[in-house]
Design brief:
The protein is mostly helical and about 210 residues long. It is built from eight helices and no strands. Helix 3 runs antiparallel to helix 5, helix 4 crosses helix 7 and helix 4 crosses helix 8. The two termini are about 40 Å apart.
């Protein structure tokens, strides 16, 4: 029953009389620029990846450690955004109160889980790096050691995740509330497709 009501809402996405959304010339230009950058990056990586890695990243590299600690969780961020968009689309567009509440809560729960996983990686790497520095060894040594999870209190992780989640959810709520019904349907369908992709596929597409 609930899924049917949700399908009824999403089904209107395909009603051409209710949706007239097209890609602008500026958006196409952005896509072309992005693809050009990707192509250049792939060509450079094909021939000079090892030399660049040795030059920029080493176990004491500030850039390398910051990137590893806080910027290698792209799949978590992508899925967090997708579930947030689905949650607030449902909140604004679904009229049936039970379905609206349950589906919004479920999507927000999934987004919280993605954020929690991202904090798990970030805090594990951070405490491992700080432990290495305290011992006088290169910061990046054994940075993947899962023993680092015992170095920080779980309550800190829950607190930081909850605080960040509430703040970002508020921003997404404001963002979606200023979109038209047509734009909400367009973006929610896009994010519904993204959230259905396997996490491994998203991770590989961002490497």
């Amino acid at each position: 029953m609930m899924m049917q009501q949700l399908n009824d809402v999403l089904g209107s996405e395909f009603d051409e009389h209710r949706l007239n959304f097209s890609t602008t010339s500026g958006e196409w230009r952005g896509v072309k620029i992005y693809l050009s950058i990707v192509l250049v990056a792939l060509l450079i990586a094909t021939f000079f990846d090892q030399q660049i890695s040795h030059f920029i990243v080493n176990q004491n590299s500030i850039f390398g450690n910051i990137f590893q600690n806080y910027a290698d969780g792209g799949e978590f961020i992508v899925l967090f955004v997708s579930f947030q968009m689905i949650a607030w689309f449902t909140w604004f567009e679904c009229q049936e109160p039970v379905t609206r509440g349950l589906m919004t809560a479920l999507a927000l729960g999934f987004s919280f889980n993605q954020l929690f996983d991202q904090f798990t990686d970030a805090m594990t790497y951070t405490y491992s790096m700080l432990g290495n520095i305290a011992k006088g060894i290169p910061a990046g040594v054994a940075n993947n050691d899962t023993a680092a999870t015992s170095l920080y209190p779980q309550s800190l992780q829950w607190f930081l995740t909850a605080l960040t989640f509430l703040f970002l959810s508020w921003l997404f709520f404001i963002y979606v509330s200023h979109k038209s019904s047509q734009q909400r349907r367009y973006f929610s369908l896009l994010h519904l497709l993204v959230s259905s992709l396997p996490k491994q596929l998203i991770r590989q597409s961002m490497i």
